[in-house]
Design a protein that fits this description.
- 14% of the residues lie in helices and 29% in strands.
- By secondary structure, it is an alpha+beta fold.
- It has one domain: 3-methyladenine DNA Glycosylase, Chain A, CATH 3.10.300.10.
- Strands 1, 2, 3, 4, 5, 6, 7, 8 and 9 form a nine-stranded antiparallel sheet that branches.
- The longest helix has 8 residues.
- The chain binds a DNA duplex (12 and 12 nucleotides) through strand 3, strand 4 and helix 3.
Length: 171
Amino acid sequence: MQGKKRLTRDFYIRDVLIVAPELIGKALVVRSGIKACRKYIITETEAYRGIEDKACHASRGRTERTDVMFLQGGKVYVYFVYGMYWMLNIVTGEENNPQAALIRSVEGFDGPGKLTRAIGIDKSFYGEDLTLSDRMWIEDSEISPVIKTGQRIGIDYAGEFWKTRQWRYYI
DNA sequence: TCAGTGATTAGG
DNA sequence: CTAATCACTGAG
């Protein structure tokens, strides 16, 4: 089950502004329900960075929902929004430096809500450790895509400064 | 452009 | 307990 190319802790504990763009082109491996493992190439991510980032959920403190972001990088942060959609995030950085990379799209499934619905991500993945789990991890790939950047989507509430950070990465 | 949808959160 | 909010999507 352990993939040869599985990314290790060292990859995740770096700053989210490094990890989020590096996730582009990597392979997300998931086994949900009774289905066999499937691989999805990550094509779009966004960085959420620390308590000072008004768009980051952790900026409003450590709560039951945001708790996992305060742990060492390499874990999964999943939350429910708009009454319908699960969002999939990868926790990055060191302990007590809450950061996460939102997986917005993978090859074949464009949009964070649509992709989690399609590949079967829900609350049960909250806190999953990508370096240990037998149902979700990320593998390195030979792909070196050209990465574009832009503003993060859907965070008008965060104010002009945080809204205009170029922290969205995509192919 | 705008409503649906319900977990999460802050505040009595 | 209540009410506001929301890292989205699909229909029009």
